[in-house]
Amino acid sequence: LIVFLLFLGCVKIGGVKMSGKKALVVIAPEDFQDHEFAMTCKGLEEKGIEIEIASTKNGVCTGKFGTSVNAKSIDEYNLSEFDAIVFIGGPGVPLVRSDDRMVQAAK
Questions:
Q1: Whole-angstrom distance, CA of residue 25 vs CA of residue 40
Q2: Beta-bridge partner residues of 24
Q3: What angle do CA 81, 53, 38 make, to 5 degrees?
């Protein structure tokens, strides 16, 4: 998932901070990949990027290995306010892929 660090050609390798940038991290409502989620969020926050968490529904989402995350429905966000949208993998991805709102967000 190195691609997210290079979104829009903005992030420079080597510790450059990206304050003022925002990323929307999208997870499945269940069975998202916990480690990928944690490391992605950590990496973005270390670069100074503000993150928001979205899913197909409001409320608590549970990762494959039990991580609980509070997310808002994708409908609650204005996608144009984000510099990047990051989709987290895992066994729950078909729940995200089958949601037309998520497909539109990816476009």
A1: 9
A2: 52, 85
A3: 125
**Among 55, 38, 37, 59, CA closest to 96:** 55
Eight-state DSSP code of residue 3: G
The token pair that represents 52 in the structure block: 């928001």
Give the H/E segment covering residue 52: strand 50-55
pLDDT score for 20? 85
Q: Which structure tokens are listed for 65? A: 């290995």
Helix, strand, coil percentages, rounded to 5, for the chain: 35, 25, 35
Q: Which of 46, 52, 48, 37 is nearest to 85 (CA)?
A: 52
pLDDT along the chain (107 residues), means of 10: 43 62 96 96 93 97 96 96 95 95 91
